[in-house]
């Protein structure tokens, strides 16, 4: 490992710990202003869905993108990252439901509707989505109201019908009618790309960066999102190749097209290298400070788990 | 009908038309900034869930509470009302799901999961909840960022685990373990009370009213919320009495306690009159201007549909 990648791993771990602690605090039994009671079973289900020890890649991107502009109010970046992670976790809880992808396990644990019940899982997802906007707007997030408003709007757009929720709808439709290349690109840009792009742009918003820097981080986020999805599809195929003894075809066979399935593994590996290089080019204006985000793009492109 | 109640009915109708038009515009196929595409089927399901011609009581309360403080930016109050209605409609779409209350019909139309499918209904609810915060934060809502931030926070608290979503969790639990009087009061204050209270307080926030006025509208909202729920429970019983030929017992029998079931119909009718009078007293400092909101409390307490 290079010193840059060791630093990256350390920062990934320490940021994940900050976000985990922040989420655990937000999901405690204590009432916030304006709340009447926090029903125990729902709270437990929400905690099950949110405190699952993930890599917390999206909050990491918020925090490190904000850090690009100097020290800044780090705890606010952690809070915005935690808000974004609530949206990500809500989407996992709902996507796992029987009516959606019907998954029983996530990260080796029973999914929320298995550990509790379907109704509670639906409400747990709703609660996490609502909480995301609570966290951004709360007084404890020390940002100007202008910045909070921008964050609320950008997060709602990234998560809504033109972003993640719409992407999940396209994904459900793709099981019946396999989309072509353009359709896959749109689906992935919405389903996984929109939140990752928001993560990077949110860092710039938190730091009140100028429009040019914000635009660069937005494009960096799009590039990382593309790499994230492509690596995911490749991983799906590779893991499959090892266990099933055949290299291609599973995704095609079940009618869920991926770019890897359409264009092949070699193309995907070349494209991942290109995307990591593009991310580096986009960050060049920020100089050495951007080292950690350059390394992040490499990590996302090369990840094998 | 008194002239006051005729005016009330006219305003209820004209406000509902404004909100309906606002929602129809927001739920059109046109992309907003930051959106990639709006999947057709999901958009149709969202429209089915939101454009259902309801009374739009919650937006009405926002608009009329704001109007108490002068003309103000009426279109912003309509937008905030539309945002709140999105939250209300999302809760109906999710509550109707098979895993929740399993209802096939709402306002004489098939519920969203019946007209489309469960997965799409889950996503349609998620989309409406997300859209609520989009609407408040969007530039088209001409309010200061401070006011927008206050609205986002208050709405998230009213809708979250300490408010509506938590109330629905308590309601699910109540089917297994019938709560006592205190439990019913908490459940109802959260499940239906929190959004109605928010509606009235939001009017004051939109108008940037002082803390005292805001407190009065908050208490007015609590009073209207209590009356709304009590009238609902009474209506449930009365409708039942007509069709079933017995006056009491259905709610108790199915284990879902209501205050009417616990304390009787006479008590409920007396209490509704008290609540309407309390609402009037709370609004006395606002003078004649508050006539429409006084009438609203009477309407809510006396409604028989």
From TrEMBL, chains A, B:
* CDD domains found in the cross-reference section: Trans_IPPS_HT (cd00685)
Claim: Magnesium is one of the keywords in the record? yes
Signal peptide limits: none
- The keyword Transferase appears for this protein: yes
Tell me a GO cellular component. cytoplasm
Which GO molecular function terms does the record list?
metal ion binding; prenyltransferase activity
What keywords would UniProt list here? Isoprene biosynthesis, Magnesium, Metal-binding, Transferase
Alphabetical GO biological process terms: terpenoid biosynthetic process
Known cofactor(s) = Mg(2+)
- Gene3D superfamilies recorded: Farnesyl Diphosphate Synthase (1.10.600.10)
Among InterPro entries, the record links this protein to: Isoprenoid_synthase_dom_sf, Polyprenyl_synt, Polyprenyl_synt_CS, Prenyl_diphosphate_synthase
Instruction: Return the similarity comment.
Output: Belongs to the FPP/GGPP synthase family.
Query: What NCBIfam families is this protein classified in?
Result: FPPsyn (NF045485)
Protein name (Swiss-Prot/TrEMBL) = Probable farnesyl diphosphate synthase
Species assigned in the record: Mycoplana azooxidifex
Lineage of the organism: Bacteria, Pseudomonadati, Pseudomonadota, Alphaproteobacteria, Hyphomicrobiales
